[in-house]
Amino acid sequence: MKQIEVVAAVICHNGKFFATQRGYGEFKDFWEFPGGKMEPGETREEALKREIREELDTEISVDTFLTTVEYPYPAFHLTMHCFFCSVRSGHLELKEHENAAWLRLEELDSVDWLPADVEVVKTIKNH
Ligand SMILES: Nc1nc2c([nH]c(=O)n2[C@H]2C[C@H](O)[C@@H](COP(=O)(O)OP(=O)(O)OP(=O)(O)O)O2)c(=O)[nH]1
User: Fold this and answer.
1) Which residues form the Nudix hydrolase domain (predicted)?
2) Atom 4, ligand 1: which residue's CA is nearest?
């Protein structure tokens, strides 16, 4: 089974969490935390900063580790490392996603998350 290792940013500000909606591909229209696949030789933090720069034209600080989720999709096994992050500079411009929202804790269940993210959302709520 193919394995992929992904990093994801749970960007927080004033009690809200930044969620993005996929604009293309197999999981189009599902919501996720921005991020992507790690490249060889990168640390998790480097990969996350690079992905957020590419996807949102924004510099983040990677603040604390939240959780690692393991999820068996039919076509691959996902390992996803999630971190609480904050914006250092930039305006979270959507370069690849079709939509985004700042969600309060009690609004986190209002969007259709990718299957692996349901576990991440539970962890945020219990944090
Ligand atoms: N970024 C991100 N990916 C997620 C989340 N939940 C989840 O199941 N995934 C899955 C969807 C994708 O199969 C994979 C991430 O790949 P990606 O397509 O975002 O990564 P990438 O930008 O490096 O890839 P690519 O399109 O250049 O191939 O992880 C999530 O919250 N954030």
Assistant:
1) 2-127
2) 32
The pTM of this model reads: 0.96
6 alpha carbon – ligand 1 mean position (Å)? 7
Q: What is the CATH number of domain 2-125?
A: 3.90.79.10
Spacing of C-alpha 4 from chain mean position: 15
The model's pLDDT over 58-72, given as tens digits with 9 standing for 90+, comes to 999 999 999 999 999
48 lines ligand 1 (CB under 6 A): no
Indicate the pairing of strand 35-37 with strand 31-32: unpaired
Residues 6+ apart with CB under 8 A from 95: 54, 55, 56, 57
